[in-house]
UniProtKB/TrEMBL annotation, chain A:
This is Phosphatidylinositol glycan anchor biosynthesis class U protein. Pathway: Glycolipid biosynthesis; glycosylphosphatidylinositol-anchor biosynthesis. It is found in: Endoplasmic reticulum membrane. GO terms for biological process: attachment of GPI anchor to protein; GPI anchor biosynthetic process. It is a multi-pass membrane protein. The lineage of its organism: Eukaryota, Fungi, Dikarya, Ascomycota, Pezizomycotina. Belongs to the PIGU family. It comes from the Eukaryota. One of its GO terms (cellular component) is GPI-anchor transamidase complex. Keywords: Endoplasmic reticulum, GPI-anchor biosynthesis, Membrane, Transmembrane, Transmembrane helix.
From TrEMBL, chain B:
One of its GO terms (cellular component) is GPI-anchor transamidase complex. Keywords: Membrane, Transmembrane, Transmembrane helix. Its main location: membrane. Pfam families: Gaa1 (PF04114), Rhomboid (PF01694). This is Rhomboid protein 2. Residues 59-200 form the Peptidase S54 rhomboid domain.
Length: 424, 851
């Protein structure tokens, strides 16, 4: 790979990605609606159809949360009501989604070019020569079928993806304030990104410490948290002004916290909570959320030297264990994984992971079809395949973690490089 | 200590049998005290526990009894499980005599005194008992020992001393185990730490004396399992042979026995030769499995699963004067032959209106293969007198059947039945009578529109509707004379099948109640022996695999509406009234349904009207065939990671996996998958007249394309590894598609799997040119295009007809067999051809070039 990336190639990549999406939108008019209805892409908290419903209510001066269909952030409503009607002039919506994808790719490009993955403030990988440039990383993201499908399905999770990627990009470029603003937006849109705050603050801190010589971590953390709280307050205030009540808190974050909508998705929660007796519900909600958030502390401490690794692994874990995951979360994780090209040779199960994820990708819709349409299967078919899907993802998370730790370990013990070891 | 990975029963047994003496004594004492504690006359626990307030000179015995007494059996079991490995280790190192001295002396009394003193100071009086104090003492000693070897472990850059782990255990136990004594455990641990620091040697009985006792009494000779003090000199780990590889060997982290053997197995060169044979075995077993299915041992008799159906349990009254009505209607319909669709519908609508049914019409226009299928459906709804319109059953009579014969008796029979049904008051479901101009497009348009899944540009919406469709029966009765048997056609679009209960009901009513013959899969005679069963099954599989609509019922099945077509055949003495009674009986059964047909099977292969195999029995054969591709894909991936010059390297040296060059293989496979859209689009969108020239052009293109792709690959740098990877990825995709497909359309998956089985075994022939050419020719003989040509020749139809049928099915019914052929099978075949034609360079050659 030559390192040179000309403006022509950059433009070519972006134009190519935009044209591909636009072509699917316009030439295959059935596809967007088909994908919008797929449970793998649209969850109750990201569905474009539900957004339309909320928008309709909002434009008719009814509270968008009436009827219990719309569970997304209130600020989407003024944004989408600025656009012409999505059913009569869909092109504007398409352009918005394409632009968001390109923005995400731009942020990813910046992260890749910063070289944070191979040489963070506290750790420099011995394999740092071997990495992909921003062009390849952005291309892998933009032409990943999962990303394309999410964009075509117009899931609102693309906005969260974009915000998270920008938060990381700002953090690695040493702009903690912008990073905090971006992560707050992500957290405002879908709550779970707030869990990324600890590693993100550490990433900002590491970057700042070199450049500005900040000594103490406590005031730095406190300032950043104050920024997040302030921006969040601002966003909540604006939401309150738009909807006129605090109802949106329970309808958006409340739904995520209590899983009141049990529409099937690729995650692990819905089936459990369908089966569960009501008396155990709140206990297990607590357990599931605790489980989701307990990774944050452990990983942040264990891989303190490379906060971006923590962010990547956490995004992978959230894609598996969050209440309403979709392939959009997987696409975000898969967007960050190529940044670790230098540790790919240390990964052990790449083929198995690829095979498992691909098998699940094809069997999932087939089993969903058998369950919902053909009627010859049942919910267990689809749930079994989501288990396989999540197994594939968790294998990838584990394997990446193993590779990164092994990379660190070989710095500590250079004599062990290349030898076979076993985790115990 | 046995770790989980090395656990096996023989080892565990031998471990138990090798337990040393003092450990056994402790175990025995704990057991005896537990048994004694079972009785209620004497309160053992009150007698023996360590109770601070009770301690005095006379009760000092408590200091030695409390570790053996437990609260209950669980307490005892838990403590035994934890203490045995620790104590065994300790005894092995210090000798039985020392153990005895220590554990009946300082190691028990000191923590006990410590505990009592602290309790007294704090003014508490908590009784403690159990061996867990010893456990903590021993853990403390172990931890100090570990600390000496390995002072810290690093967590996030902070060195944490290893001796601190027992404290963690202490807190976890205190938090998780109810009723555990934190203070007692802490006292034990403190003594353990002190002992581990080296104080143990002051506590232990003087070595000289111990040796003297041991020697005088010849304890080693007299007592079984006695551990001598002498062993302590070396410690048993230094002297005794052990199964573990020493940690020093190679300076690496030791691997457990399982780990090493698995790795050794993986590196064994024989392992790499095995998968192709496994793969071949999978194909053979899969194929043989299929041929076993018709045997009595593997197939089952059909049975009615849904008890509500009660087939053949009602009297059928159709007949008598209805015969005259039928003749009149037949006269009317005969006069319509040759008229236009609209004229026919006008007349029929007139008749049906006259019966008092609501009618409506629906227009549809389909364009496929340059032909236009248009027409007008006429349908009427007989409203159920006994219910609201929530459910309905459909009676379909197409004006023409699939062969283009006019449904001369079917249409008048349907009219007669409609008139007859109208007179009954027992219907709990609406009955919809549908007259469509043809057998494929008309019913499809109607059922699409009924479920609002139609394209409004081509198919009009329905004017009136009823409830959810519960079943449909199509009558295909072109024959004018009396018939002998009924042919049940049940294949749906894309190989979907109606619920087996529906077929069983029809077989039961026609064969059992009415006493007429029933045939399936055009097996006009069937002797219910192996060859006929096999033939029926294979015909069924072929039809299922092709996935075309086989009658007016086919369009209903994708909407989960169970449907069959009934076609009388043969010369016999059954008349139209008998046929009508079969329909009446079936409708009465469907009318009984309380819920949608769901009890019986949706996936089955019928091999006789009353014999079937269910999915559980037949699916493994298709899955085995699909698995063969996956096995080969994984094998090739593993092989591609092995260094090429593998002969000299022995398995001892560890070889890191070779870096794989992935871009070219992935590119080739993606290219093959992408260009597969071209034949799919072309064959579905060109007019019928150009299909034959297009097919010939495609045949030529098909032969040249692999040559073209393989000549485009850079011959100077494409290695054997890259060809292996091309094949690996292509087979992985094929295996994946086929196993997904097997759940949807078993027969198609099986068919494609068997036809592309040779692709598992192709490989490049770098130097052997004749082999390369002959393999390529052989591969060309099983190319999708060649197979199409061959099947056209076998069934004596033209290739144009096959292709235009496929295009019509694609556009009208949404059959996706074409997708499977062109986008699954063809790319895999293409990649296989590229591999065969490949001329990989040798590794050394490449290295030389680079140098």
């Amino acid at each position: 790979m030559d390192g040179k990336v000309t403006i022509g190639r950059t433009a070519g990549l972006y134009i190519g990605a935009a044209v591909l999406r636009l072509a699917i939108f316009t030439l295959l008019p059935g596809i967007p609606d088909l994908l919008t209805g797929r449970v793998e892409i649209s969850t109750p908290v990201t569905s474009f159809k539900r957004l339309q419903e909320g928008l309709f209510l909002y434009n008719h001066n009814v509270s968008p949360y009436d009827g219990g269909v719309y569970h997304q952030a209130p600020l989407f409503l003024p944004l989408f009501s600025l656009l012409p009607n999505a059913s009569s002039y869909p092109i504007f919506t398409y352009l918005l989604y394409i632009a968001v994808d390109l923005l995400s790719a731009g942020a990813l490009w910046k992260i890749a070019d910063s070289g944070e993955t191979v040489a963070s403030a506290l750790f420099t990988s011995p394999r740092k020569e071997k990495r992909w440039n921003g062009f390849i990383i952005a291309a892998v993201f933009l032409f990943n079928p999962f990303t394309v499908a999410t964009c075509i399905g117009r899931s609102t999770s693309v906005f969260t993806t974009c915000a998270i990627l920008h938060a990381i990009a700002k953090a690695v470029s040493g702009a903690p304030f912008s990073a905090m603003v971006a992560i707050t937006f992500a957290g405002y849109l879908s709550l779970y990104p707030l869990l990324l705050l600890p590693p993100l603050v550490l990433l900002c801190y590491d970057r700042q410490r070199i450049e500005r010589g900040i000594k103490s971590v406590i005031p730095f953390v406190a300032t950043n948290i104050a920024v997040v709280a302030g921006i969040m307050g601002l966003l909540f205030g604006m939401s309150y002004l738009i909807t006129g009540s605090w109802e949106f808190l329970t309808s958006t974050y409340g739904v995520q916290l209590t899983l009141s909508d049990l529409t099937p998705n690729v995650g692990l929660w819905w089936y459990f909570f369908i089966e569960m007796f009501d008396s155990f519900r709140s206990f297990f909600l607590g357990v599931f959320w605790l489980h989701l958030s307990c990774y944050v502390g452990g990983l942040t401490v264990r891989i303190r030297q490379q906060p971006l690794v923590v962010l990547t692994l956490l995004l992978g874990i959230f894609g598996i264990f969050k209440p309403y995951p979709s392939i959009s979360d997987t696409s975000l994780f898969l967007a960050l994984v190529p940044l670790y090209r230098h540790v790919f040779p240390l990964m052990r199960y790449t083929f198995v992971i690829a095979a498992v994820i691909m098998y699940a990708t094809f069997l999932g819709p087939a089993f969903y079809y058998l369950w919902i349409y053909a009627g010859s299967g049942n919910a267990n078919f689809f749930y079994a395949i989501t288990l396989v899907w999540n197994l594939g993802q968790s294998l990838l998370v584990c394997d990446l973690m193993f590779a990164v730790l092994r990379d660190e370990w070989e710095v500590e013990r250079p004599e062990m490089a290349g030898k076979e070891i076993r985790q115990i | 200590m046995p770790s989980l990975q090395t656990f096996n029963t023989t080892r565990a047994r031998s471990y138990v049998f090798r337990l040393p003496l003092f450990t056994r004594i402790v175990l025995l004492a704990i057991t005896i005290f537990w048994l004694v504690g079972l009785q209620s006359a004497f309160d053992l626990r009150q007698w023996g526990a360590l109770i601070p307030k009770e301690m005095g000179l006379g009760t000092l015995y408590r200091m030695n009894t409390f570790p053996f007494i437990h609260l209950n059996v669980w307490h005892a079991v838990m403590n035994v499980v934890t203490i045995v490995p620790l104590l065994e280790r300790f005894e092995g190192e210090y000798g039985t005599l020392n153990c005895l001295g220590l554990f009946f002396g300082p190691l028990t009394t000191i923590p006990a005194v410590l505990y009592v003193v602290v309790e007294r100071i704090m003014g508490l009086n908590t009784a403690v008992m159990g061996a867990s104090m010893w456990v903590f003492t021993l853990i403390g000693i172990e931890a100090m020992r570990a600390y000496r070897h390995n002072p810290t472990f690093v967590l996030a850059g902070y060195g944490i001393p290893t001796w601190s782990t027992p404290i963690g255990i202490l807190f976890v136990v205190a938090a998780l185990v109810p009723g555990s004594s934190f203070l007692g455990h802490a006292a034990g641990l403190a003594v353990g730490y002190a002992a581990g620091r080296g104080l143990l040697k002051y506590l232990a009985p003087p070595e000289k004396i111990a040796r003297w006792i041991e020697g005088k009494l010849n304890l080693l000779g007299r007592l079984p399992h006695y551990v001598s003090i002498d062993q302590k000199t070396y410690g048993r780990f230094g002297v005794l042979p052990s199964s573990h590889a020493g940690p020093g060997a190679g300076g690496g982290v030791p691997l457990g026995p399982i780990g090493t053997s698995a790795l050794a197995l993986r590196r064994d060169p024989r392992m790499l030769k095995l998968p192709p044979y496994i793969s071949l075995l999978c194909i053979l077993v899969g194929a043989v499995w299929l041929f076993l299915l018709p045997l009595n041992e593997y197939s089952r008799r059909t049975y009615i699963s849904e008890n509500a159906l009660l087939p053949g349990q009602v009297h059928t009254y159709f007949g008598g004067s209805d015969q005259n009505v039928f003749r009149a209607y037949k006269h009317e319909t005969n006069s319509l032959i040759g008229k236009t669709n609209t004229e026919i519908n006008d007349k029929l609508e007139d008749i049906v209106r006259g019966l008092g049914l609501k009618t409506a019409r629906q227009n549809f226009t389909y364009k496929a293969a340059g032909r236009v299928f248009e027409g007008e459906n006429l349908y009427a709804i007989l409203q159920a007198p006994r219910s609201d319109a929530t459910e309905a059953i459909v009676l379909v009579a197409a004006w023409e059947n699939v062969k283009g014969e006019i449904n001369r008796s079917g249409v008048p029979l349907t009219l007669t039945l409609a008139r007859y049904f109208k007179r009954w008051s027992l219907w709990s479901k609406d009955i919809i009578v549908l007259f469509s101009p043809d057998s494929i497009a008309g019913p499809q348009a109607w059922v699409d529109a009924y479920h609002d899944a139609h394209d409004t540009r081509r198919v009009a919406s329905l004017g009136i509707k009823s409830g959810a469709l519960q079943g449909a029966i199509a009558i295909d009765y072109a024959q004018e004379q009396r018939f002998q048997s009924i042919h049940v056609v049940y294949d749906g679009v894309n190989g979907q099948l109606p619920n087996l209960d529906l077929i069983n009901s029809v077989v039961n009513i026609a064969g059992g109640q009415m006493g007429m013959g029933v045939a399936i899969q055009e097996m006009w005679t069937h002797d219910d022996r192996y060859p006929d069963r096999l033939r029926t099954m294979l015909r069924g599989m072929l039809k299922q695999g092709v996935g075309l609509a086989s009658g007016a019922h086919s369009g209903f099945i994708p909407y989960h509406v169970d449907a069959v077509t009934l076609r009388p055949f043969g010369e016999g003495w059954q008349d139209e009234m008998a046929m009508g009674r079969v329909v009446e009986g079936t409708f009465r059964s469907l009318n009984n349904l309380l819920e949608h047909l769901h009890q019986s099977f949706f996936f089955y292969l019928l091999m006789q009207k009353e014999r079937f195999v269910s999915i559980g029995t037949y699916l493994p054969s298709a899955m085995l065939v699909a698995a063969n591709f996956t096995i080969m894909a994984i094998f090739l991936w593993m092989k591609s990671g092995q260094p090429v010059s593998g002969k000299e390297t022995c398995s001892e040296t560890q070889q890191p996996a070779v870096e794989r060059e992935l871009f070219l293989p992935i590119g080739v496979v993606i290219l093959c998958q992408t260009i597969s859209a071209i034949p799919l689009y072309l064959f579905n969108h060109v007019p019928e007249s150009t299909l034959t020239p297009l097919f010939i052009a495609f045949l030529i293109f098909n032969t040249i394309l692999p040559l073209l792709i393989s000549s485009l690959l850079p011959t100077s740098s494409t290695t054997q590894q890259q060809y292996s990877l091309i094949k690996s990825f292509s087979l992985l995709l094929l295996g994946m598609f086929l196993s997904s497909l097997a759940t949807l359309n078993f027969s198609l998956s099986m068919l494609i799997g068997l036809l592309s089985a040779p692709l598992s075994f192709v490989r490049p022939f770098p130097s052997n040119i004749p082999a390369r050419i002959s393999t390529f020719i052989l591969l060309n003989l099983i190319s999708p295009a060649a197979v199409l040509l061959g099947s056209a020749a076998y069934w004596q139809t033209s290739i144009t007809k096959i292709l235009s049928e496929a295009a019509v099915a694609w556009h009208v019914c949404g059959t996706w067999s074409a997708v499977v052929v062109w986008c699954v099978w063809w790319p895999a075949w293409l990649a296989g051809c590229v591999v065969v034609l490949g001329r990989p360079v040798e590794e050394e050659e490449q290295k030389e070039k680079k140098a």
